[in-house]
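Reviewer comment 2.1 asked that we show a complete input and output for one of the modelled complexes. We chose the thymidine-5'-diphosphate case, as it is the one discussed in the main text.
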Amino acid sequence: MGKPVNIFVCQSCGSVHGKWAGRCDACGEWNTLVEEVPAQNSPKSSRRRRSRAIDFVSLDGETEEHPRLSTGIDELNRVTGGGFVPGSVLLIGGDPGIGKSTLLLQVAGFMAKCGQGGTLCKTAYISGEESTAQVKRRAKRLGLSNAPVSLAAETSLGPIIDGLLAEKPDVVIIDSIQTMWTDQLGAAPGTVAQVRACAQELTRYAKKSGAVMLLVGHVTKDGQIAGPRVVEHMVDAVLYFEGDRANQFRILRAHKNRFGPTDEIGVFEMGGQGLNEVANPSALFLDGREEAASGAAVFAGLEGTRPLLTEIQALVAPAAFGTPRRAVVGWDSGRLAMVLAVLEARCGINFGGKDVYLNVAGGLKIAEPAADLAVAAALISSIFDKPLPADCVVFGELSLSGDVRQASRSDARLKEAAKLGFKCAIATLNKQGETKNISSQLPILEINTLPDLITRVEAL
Ligand code: TYD
Ligand code: MG
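Response of the prediction step:
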């Protein structure tokens, strides 16, 4: 029998085509045809074989906890939910040069030599992008030359799987999934079909062997892991490495995690000898803050279980051109439009002829609704040119009516602010139940509506 003819399947409607086309004839979607290897349809396999019936179990009863392998990096342990689970597959995405290879080489090194409390494991690092000499040079820079990591530079999947079967490592690092290719498909490396086939094959190996598989994934311009979304569905966890290359802070965030929480972040700092963990990120993000400048508000945020204080800076200036500009760094521009609209409609502040710039200091991206009030406070402070008290934190969610709602876990936020020497908080405590035990931590300048906030700022 000859080589099976590959088919092209539309990822949108599922229709099968004999040859590739830019547009699916069946549903009209563009760029959705993906090459696939058809299942061998020999007469033997097409006959329905009687197979073993599955066993059903009940939901209750004994289950075993997932054993965890400590990575030797506390921040990474936190993001993964306590370390790697054997047999799991993790995808680590991020912009080029952000530090993915550095982080993973550090993990491989620590685990191979049981450094920094990492579980002693046999680790393999397969680089499809750099030569072994380049990786060795990096290991030297990281002080990990003596770590017994099995290193290889290869992009062809067949030899990699054979090598892994012979070496039997506990932790495998593939840097990166976009450089891998399998000769099963005619498509070029990096194409959707290749990435998907390689990820599938490596996942199968991980599940079968019980090894932890760490796949590095490149991201596209709009910030998604290049290649098909199915890779994200296939793996157990997707971690993104974020940060500004101009800034030394790097944030590792879990977007999906089958074995742990998805809202935890790990904070790192890129130094001369690789990535260093940042145990107290609030102090770092507030470092170098100017005393009492107008337009700045300290937001007491929450990232997963960890409170995180950051400075939100706003600048409201007369618009130079007809259409005023709205520029946002580190926050959602739609959310800024909402806060501006609420300020206009409920407080009568006119932003019509003004440019508005908003920046979250330190390169952090904030997604919490509780930042609304801090943004509003920064905007009001800028427009009235009145600095907020330097020792005051702000948090609370805004509703469209101009009311302020209490943020979740106010106690944790206040505790962190008190720990860093803040003396008061602008917030609301209108949620029942939490009020009593909270007020003891830090004096609260209670505001219940946005006009309350304006009155407070005007009185400063
Ligand atoms: P890298 O891990 O190669 O990024 P990625 O794999 O995500 O593309 O990181 C490369 C950058 O990190 C590079 O610009 C140099 C910098 N770097 C340091 O500042 N210190 C170090 O110790 C190392 C190894 C890299
Ligand atoms: Mg790299």
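Residues 94, 96-102, 138, 141-142, 270, 272-274 surround thymidine-5'-diphosphate (ligand 1) (CB under 6 Å). We note this here for comparison with the apo prediction described in Section 3.2.
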